[in-house]
């Protein structure tokens, strides 16, 4: 346990597994009270059990981030339980269906954008409102991706959503800089998560994807969580409006 976030209240969306779960646990170990949001109740409560086992305090709120009423209720629930909101990691997202644009359905486009982009916008809206109500100050990290900085064949909706998150992050940071609310994005390469397994799980594809990372392996959820923790701490107090890339060298050169 550290005291880096002692006395803080943190919110993590998509905290039921992978990077979200690891970050929620790390926030708790750093002294924060953690509100975990997600659509899967069983896994969400498992995250809270892990937080409590580590000596922390937390709350799970079942939430669909694409719905304004649910995001509003999530923030209100956090404040009712822990009196304030200091930190947020807007991590919830889906990969959607990866197909060429000409074969992509409108339904999949809408679903991917609604969760990955609209969901981050809604979270920002209600989180920032609460932080301003408290008198300002706070730190927010939004989940983007290396595909928020480059194209990816078959991933039009996903890539567009993650590019959009970076634009949202910059705008929100500018709008709230004077209020002391820092807003940044994190852009991972391919990480060893359930989503990564769904997309790149077959041995041949996995090997090819590892080959796109010059460091020679995929990332681990804890490596992203550690970066998000730093971005939300006072150690990153001069950082806002930025997109931090953690990609094992993926974007450093041609593949």
Task: Describe, in plain words, how this protein is organized in 3D.
Helix 2 links the parallel strand 2 (33-38) and strand 3 (57-62). The protein has 8 helices and 7 strands, in the order βαβαβαβαβαβαααβ. The protein is globular. With 255 residues, it is an alpha/beta fold. The longest helix is centred in the middle third of the chain and has 28 residues, at 106-133.
Discrete helix count: 8
What is the overall pLDDT average? Answer: 94
- Alpha-beta content class: alpha/beta
Number of domains: 1
Q: Report the CATH C-level class.
A: Alpha Beta
CATH topology: Rossmann fold
What is the helix fraction of residues, given as a range? 40-55%
Strand order of the largest sheet: 3-2-1-4-5-6-7
Instruction: State the separation between the terminal residues, measured CA to CA.
Output: 40 Å
- What's the number of extended β-strand segments? 7
């Amino acid at each position: 346990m550290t005291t880096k976030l002692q006395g803080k209240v943190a919110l993590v969306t998509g905290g039921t597994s992978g990077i979200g779960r690891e970050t929620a646990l790390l926030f708790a170990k750093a002294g924060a009270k953690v509100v975990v949001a997600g659509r899967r109740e069983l896994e969400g409560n498992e995250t809270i059990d892990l937080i409590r086992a580590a000596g922390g305090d937390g709350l799970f709120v079942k939430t669909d981030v694409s719905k304004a009423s649910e995001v509003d209720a999530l923030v209100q629930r956090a404040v009712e339980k822990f009196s304030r909101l200091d930190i947020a990691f807007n991590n919830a997202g889906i990969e959607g269906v990866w197909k060429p644009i000409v074969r992509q359905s409108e339904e999949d486009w809408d679903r991917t954008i609604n969760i990955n982009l609209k969901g981050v916008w809604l979270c920002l809206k209600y989180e920032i409102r609460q932080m301003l109500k408290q008198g300002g100050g706070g730190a927010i990290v939004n989940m983007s991706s290396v595909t928020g900085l480059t194209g990816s064949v078959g991933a039009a909706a996903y890539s567009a959503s993650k590019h959009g998150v970076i634009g949202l992050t910059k705008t929100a940071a500018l709008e709230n800089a004077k209020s002391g609310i820092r807003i940044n994005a994190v852009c991972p390469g391919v990480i060893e998560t359930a989503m990564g397994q769904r997309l790149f799980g077959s041995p041949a594809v996995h090997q090819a994807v590892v080959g796109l990372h010059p460091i020679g392996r995929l990332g681990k959820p804890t490596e992203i969580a550690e970066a998000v923790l730093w971005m939300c701490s006072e150690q990153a107090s001069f950082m806002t409006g930025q997109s931090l890339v953690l990609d094992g060298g993926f974007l450093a050169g041609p593949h």
